[in-house]
Amino acid sequence: xxxLYLTNTLNNLxxxxxxxxxxFAPKETWIKATKWKNFNIKKRVKxxxxxxxxxxxxxxxxxxxxxxxxxxxxxxxxxxxxxxIMTDIKVQPSWILQTDKGNQVGFILKDFISYxxxxxIKIALEIKRLITKALNADEKGSHRLKxxxxxxITHNHLFFDNKVKLKDFYHLYPKQPTKQQRFNADIxxxxxxxxxxxxxxxxxxxxxxxxxxxxxxxxxxxENEQKVYSYLVHLMNEKAKTxxxxxxxxxxxxxxxxxVAEYNREGKNYVKINVENRQSKPIKRGAMGFNPxxxxxxxxxxxxxxxxxxxxxxxxxxTNKILSEKEAKGEVKMTRAERAISNAKARAEKARKTVxxxxxxxFADEYKKKSGSWHIGKISKVTGVSRNVVAKYIKExxxxxxxxxxxx
Length: 408
Description:
The protein is an alpha+beta fold. It is built from 13 helices and nine strands. β2 (30-34) and β3 (43-46) form a beta hairpin. It is flat and about 95 Å long. Strands 1-9-6-7-5 form a five-stranded antiparallel β-sheet, with helices on both faces. It has a four-stranded antiparallel β-sheet with strand order 3-2-4-8. 22% of the residues are buried.
């Protein structure tokens, strides 16, 4: 049976030691605490003194040891909040304390969680969000794992000798859809998304599958694979003549019939869309307008390779024609390599002009040493150009001056 400690047990050493051992690591003999709500005025205090005299403490500094929920703007006392927690959360808290604005609730963990363990930390944060939502608590004060919260010992409180595990809160997670519900949503989504409800190339399997699912729904013969197969053969022959489209391979038809019968036997036929009210979706054949290579389902490798090579040649011819037209109009864009070379040349020219402006401008004398040579380090610092590049352009500039002087 859980022990209940009331406020008047403040001097109970056994009670205080329970909290002390649960909330702090053995090496945390000094903790940050404050007597005022202004957390800028905080200091390091011995743990036992902080628990008895200070109103706000730093929790979960080294590892996650307690989940604290801050509830503001409530008019419930501790007993009323306890009843609400047991009704809505169904997990007994470790403590409930009363503040000037509302309450704070703490759930001490049986085993602390290191912040290096990303997965359980992520789960703990999600659980805090679920508790916050269930109790209509303050998100700012509850959606964090560590920081300053009120000291339960120095406030009006109820303390329960109780510790929890994360799995105790798993029932708060929203119910996940069943396998059948996921199938239902998936198949409806694919139907609405594709809108391929006619026997056309690229859509024959879809049409036959959904048509069979609709036709066999709620019918006993829909569980018989052979009867479903016979229906599919009849439907395929009829649609192939009407739409002038080739027949499917019979092996694919048998596989479709097997799947439809299996869904009907397991009660997983959720299709409720009328085929006749759907329009077929036009099949995109690309810029070249090629039809599928394997119209009837299968082609031999040699035929496939020949057709692929032919299509590659035709596609290349079209690309070259477009590039020739753009080149004639001056619209051809540079390749990545050409653009990289162009950018490098532009950067080099910019650096050259920057250096020349420095050594030929009004303040050129500031960049010369007493000996008359250029102060390369100073020029480099002012222009942002590397010393090697500065030396290179100065050398070119002096060579150009010398060349002009020789000609004169």
